[in-house]
Design goal:
The complex is a heterodimer of chains A (about 600) and B (about 350).
Chain A (H helix, E strand, L loop, with lengths): L6 E2 L1 E9 L4 H14 L4 E6 L8 E9 L10 E6 L5 H6 L1 E10 L14 E5 L1 H8 L3 H20 L3 H11 L7 H18 L6 E2 L10 E4 H11 L4 E4 L6 H14 L11 E4 L3 H13 L4 E5 L1 H6 L1 H10 L3 E9 L5 E5 L4 H5 L9 E3 L4 H18 L2 E7 H5 L1 E4 L18 H5 L31 E3 L13 H19 L6 E3 L7 E5 L3 H14 L4 E5 L2 E2 L3 H8 L3 E6 L5 H10 L6 E5 L8 H21 L1
Parallel strand pairs in A: 1-8, 2-5, 5-6, 6-7, 10-11, 10-12, 12-13, 13-16, 15-16, 20-21, 20-23, 23-24
Antiparallel strand pairs in A: 2-4, 3-4, 9-17, 13-14, 15-22, 19-21
Chain B lengths: L37 H15 L7 E5 L3 H4 L9 E4 L5 H11 L4 E7 H6 L2 H9 L4 E7 L2 E2 L5 E2 L21 H8 L3 E6 L3 H13 L3 E7 L15 H7 E3 L1 E6 L14 E5 L5 E6 L9 H13 L3 E8 L6 H5 L11 H4 L3 H10 L2
Parallel strand pairs in B: 1-2, 1-3, 3-4, 4-8, 7-8, 9-13
Antiparallel strand pairs in B: 5-6, 7-13, 10-12, 11-12
Classes of the chains: A alpha/beta (about 600), B alpha/beta (about 350).
């Protein structure tokens, strides 16, 4: 029997539940309590595409050291789902803990000898206290939260305050929930003192940070960024982005007197119609977006080509999930990178942004509208389920009130009236971005016919080879212009000169940061570059060429970013080593550490042998 | 499409409308459709309708999908912005454009392939949302640009040079009625006297106005066995009424014999004078209109005229309670809640 794990403010608690049983809000309450103790948490909901009855998990990473990615492994399993019991028990780290409902005795074969089992007769406590079956179910969850609070030394006042906050507006529910919490807390205090070596200690590490989901934050970014038209079709895991946009608009964009809305949201009949509406609105000068996931992106392809070729601003949030096809609709991946980078038939190239967390989802959402209008092209905000649907601890969102929306090059009535030459596809400024006019600007000047067919610089239809090539070359130069406008990559150099580099992006960042620290303690040093956008800037090429080997860490099977790097940057593919994690769960620090350490150690051994 | 530019010369004596524009100000590029194509007559009717309604040409946005019909917005209203989008998806693009700026007049031009085949879904949803637009379907029953395949509006038993259509037809007018369109009409490209007033009434209508215009394809579907040919429609045209469009400022001074003429006032004050050609036909009765259409279609007749009208319609903007100012005119002040509010937002996530 290994030593029971002893840890303070640094462990992983995983809840195994049945979905639709009310466990989600109890588990979130637990995470909130840890935060209220001042200790950072990263929580991840691992759920099925189902409403009731299937297994669901909630993993809470508690890290006083502020590691917010998944670590990997489980120190304490709250096993509430008989369907997944065996696997759940098997997943506990040696020396870890199992909290379970001990109402009915289970055979010894159901337990492991190298873990510590902590039984609480949850059903029994419930049945003695409650008669209503629904109450028995719901309060059982709160009772185990109570037991956990006692085992982990969470202050009872913290839990009671968190319950009060959770039921704000439904005050009648506070007292019964506090009662249920006390049932579990008192039971554990009486029977289980000293049973668990995992402890929480009050800390100030959380600071002023907020706990927010990426879809919610991106929706706020759309409100702040001036989006007025949202067209969308429900699809997991993007749905809550559109819905939260509605909620935030309801709060901030309804005229208090007239009750009129300074926004329009349409739930379209499908994703094709959704992107069509976005493009129509963008053409007509409104900031418009859609939120979708892989299957929606597949359906929208034809329109992306139109918006690229006809040069119409559009913002698309792709909350990536496991593909291909329906794939794993409630699991996370970064597997639409190539699909979006070259979306639609013909030669295309699109602007992609890669936020690392909900904080950047907010910023990049607002930035995306400026970029789309400046560049007159679709801009894809490449999020994923992990960022979109989980609450993350991030610095408070910020807005500079002096910021003005960049509406791009729009020729006005007065400029037209003054005789300024208007050619819709004329590169006046040398940056390959032409001027546009909005419908309804001037009675006799500046109108043009927007089309997906080839045309000359003055928007006249033409199938002349030279005219077509001229336009296609300008579109390519426009993407060059984009390189200097999109968020720049962030480079971080190791304390000592490193021959190895690592490139990563998006939700991988948090696990990567922890992995790098772990590698450093093992004496393995890497320079890193976090890519934040496509098209890639020169810095990316420079970074790759400055290292013997560059790890490219991603959450897909086919090394999509690596392929994009090789394709676009003329770098030697032999220089890159892909570290790929694509089982649908968020990548863990342990996985990255292991994969990179193996490779670097192998390399060192080979060199020593030579 | 256009290779030849139109000469800019204008006859000094061309009549002007109340805004001082001549007919030429509402024209577009030279049509590249086949000589005798019904679509050109519809373009010409649209030009006349806009000229007569004194519409500032740039206040119209023309949108279309793909196909012969969808090329026509290039051939009219050259001072208006046009958008030739993708096949069957004009309705969504038009919806988005309309959401962005509710102050323009939205003209959607489509064909039977574009609306009834690939775009049937978008047609249906756009109509049921009550988007304020004039949706003209230039209906010839065939795909012209790909040389003569049947479309979904081709009647059962229609024959082309090489094939017979055995599929049941989709009637866009019946569909529009079921889907809640608030202005539904059918006309014939060869009957400008009927079509122009219908277009004028549709433009003045604040809601989804659908006009199905039978528009023969001289190249591929103008044969004796086609129900979309000039001869067939002329012989089987069953007009339910004759419409005169009377602008808000004009006065109706003549008295009509009771029962023969009905005056319907639209929300903007314009009046539609309907001369009844079929005594019992009431264009404000949606259910009766559907029955009438079915009965007469079964007899092989092409029912035309103003088939249904809701004089007090609600449009998508009303449903969404959007502000009167077009959304594309709003700036930071109206849209961005600012840093102070964000501090409160942050607090709610702690």
């Amino acid at each position: 029997m290994p030593e029971p794990i002893s840890a303070t403010n640094d462990f992983v608690v995983k809840f195994a539940n049945v979905n639709g049983s009310g466990s989600a809000s109890a588990n979130e309450l637990f995470a909130k309590c840890v935060l209220r103790m001042g200790v950072p948490v990263a929580s991840r909901n691992i759920f099925p595409s189902n409403i009731q009855g299937l297994p669901t998990w909630y993993e809470v990473r508690i890290s006083g050291a502020n590691w917010l990615g998944r670590r990997g492994g489980v120190d304490l399993m709250v096993a509430m789902n008989p369907q997944t019991w065996d696997k759940d028990v098997a997943s506990i780290d040696a020396g870890g803990y199992l909290l379970y409902d001990s109402t009915k005795p289970l055979p010894p074969s159901k337990f492991r000898e190298d873990t510590n089992s902590i039984g609480v007769p949850l059903t029994d406590i419930c049945n003695r206290t409650y008669t209503d079956p629904r109450q028995r179910q719901l309060f059982k969850n709160i009772i185990y939260i109570g037991a956990l609070a006692s085992l982990l030394s969470i202050e009872p006042k913290v839990v009671e305050d968190a319950i009060a906050a959770q039921f704000q507006g439904k005050e009648k529910l506070i007292a019964p929930n506090v009662k249920a919490f006390r049932l579990g807390y008192d039971y554990a205090g009486e029977h289980l003192a000293g049973a668990c070596g995992l402890k929480l200690e009050r800390s100030n590490e959380v600071g002023d940070r907020i706990f927010i989901g990426g879809n919610d934050a991106a929706a706020l970014g759309c409100v702040y960024g001036g989006a007025t038209v949202a067209a969308w079709y429900p699809i997991t895991p993007s749905t809550s982005l559109a819905e939260e946009f509605g909620n935030h608009c309801h709060e901030f964009r309804v005229d208090p007197e007239t009750k009129e809305h300074r926004y329009a949201i349409v739930q379209a009949e499908d994703e094709i119609a959704a992107i069509g509406m976005v493009i129509g609105a963008g053409w007509n000068g409104a900031r418009a977006f859609t939120a979708t996931s892989g299957p929606g992106i597949s359906l929208m392809q034809e329109f992306f080509g139109l918006a690229y070729f006809a040069e119409i601003p559009a913002v698309i949030f792709d909350i990536q999930r496991g593909g291909p096809s329906t794939g794993m609709p409630t699991r996370t991946q970064q597997s639409d990178i190539l699909l979006c980078a070259y979306a639609s038939h013909g030669d295309t190239k699109h602007v992609l942004l890669f936020p690392k967390d909900p904080g950047e989802a907010f910023t990049f959402a607002a930035d995306a509208f400026d970029l789309a209008e400046r560049l007159q092209t679709p801009v894809f905000v490449m999020m994923d389920l992990d960022i979109g649907m989980n609450d993350w601890l991030v610095p408070p969102l910020q807005w500079d009130d002096s910021r003005r929306y960049d509406r791009g090059k729009i020729m006005s009535h007065d400029e037209l009236e003054a005789g300024k030459i208007f050619g819709r596809y004329l590169d006046v400024d040398g940056d390959a971005i032409p001027y546009r006019t909005l419908p309804g600007t001037h009675p006799t000047k500046g109108s043009y016919f927007t089309r997906g067919t080839s045309r000359d610089r003055f928007a006249k239809y033409s199938e002349e080879g030279a005219v077509y090539v001229d336009n296609m070359q300008r579109l390519l130069r426009k993407i060059d212009t984009a390189k200097s406008l999109v968020p720049a990559p962030i480079r971080h150099d190791a304390k000592q000169k490193a021959r190895f580099g690592a490139i990563f992006y998006g939700s991988t960042t948090v696990a990567m940061e922890e992995a790098l620290a772990a590698l450093e303690t093992r004496g393995l040093h890497l320079d890193t570059l976090r890519v934040r956008a496509f098209p890639f800037s020169e810095d990316v090429i420079e970074f790759i060429n400055a290292h013997d080997q560059v790890f490219v860490v991603e959450q897909n099977r086919d090394a999509q970013l690596q392929k994009l790097l090789v394709n676009e940057c003329a770098v030697d593919p032999a220089r890159t080593i892909s570290i790929l994690h694509y089982d649908g769960t968020p990548i863990t620090a342990r996985f990255i550490t292991g994969a990179i350490a193996d490779r670097m150690n192998l390399n060192q051994r080979q060199e020593a042998a030579e | 499409m256009t290779y030849i530019t139109k000469p800019k010369l204008r006859h000094p004596g061309l009549p002007k409308n109340n805004l001082g524009f001549t007919h030429r100000d509402y024209e577009g590029s030279i049509s590249t459709l086949c000589a005798g194509c019904g679509h050109d007559s519809i373009s010409s009717a649209l030009i006349q309708a806009c000229f007569e309604l004194d519409i500032e040409p740039h206040r119209v946005a023309k949108l279309s999908g793909i196909g012969c019909s969808s090329k026509t917005p290039d051939y009219l209203l050259g001072n208006s912005h046009g958008f030739n989008s993708v096949h069957g998806r004009m309705p969504s693009v038009l919806t988005g454009a309309n959401l962005a700026n509710r102050d323009l007049i939205y003209l959607g031009v489509s064909g039977d392939g574009d609306s009834a085949s690939i775009g049937l879904g978008q047609f249906a949803h756009c109509v049921r949302r009550g988007v304020n637009m004039v949706y003209v379907c230039e209906n010839n029953g065939v795909y012209g640009l790909t040389k003569g395949q049947f479309s979904a509006t081709a009647d059962k038993g229609s024959k082309s040079k090489t094939a017979v259509n055995n599929d049941s037809p989709i009637d866009l007018v019946s569909l529009a009625l079921i889907l809640g369109a608030t202005f539904v009409a059918r006309s014939f490209s060869g009957d400008k006297t009927q079509l122009v007033p219908l277009l004028k009434a549709a433009i003045s209508h604040r809601g989804s106005a659908v006009i199905d215009v039978v528009s023969p394809c001289v190249q591929f579907n103008n044969n004796p066995a086609s129900t979309k040919s000039y001869d067939f429609v002329r012989e089987h045209n069953e007009a339910v009424n004759r419409l005169d469009f009377i602008e808000p400022r004009a006065q109706i001074t003549v008295d009509y014999e009771p029962g023969t003429v009905e005056i319907v006032t639209q929300h903007d004050g314009s009046q539609l004078k309907l001369s009844k050609l079929h005594g019992s036909y009431d264009p404000r009765d949606r259910v009766a209109a559907m029955t009438y259409l079915q009965e007469h279609h079964a007899k092989g007749e092409v029912v035309t005229g103003l088939l249904y009208l809701d004089p007090e319609p609600e449009d998508l903007h009303a449903h969404l309670s959007t502000v009167a100012t077009p959304l594309n005119m709003l700036g930071e002040k109206e849209l961005c809640p600012g840093a102070k509010k964000l501090a409160d937002v942050n607090e709610s996530y702690r």
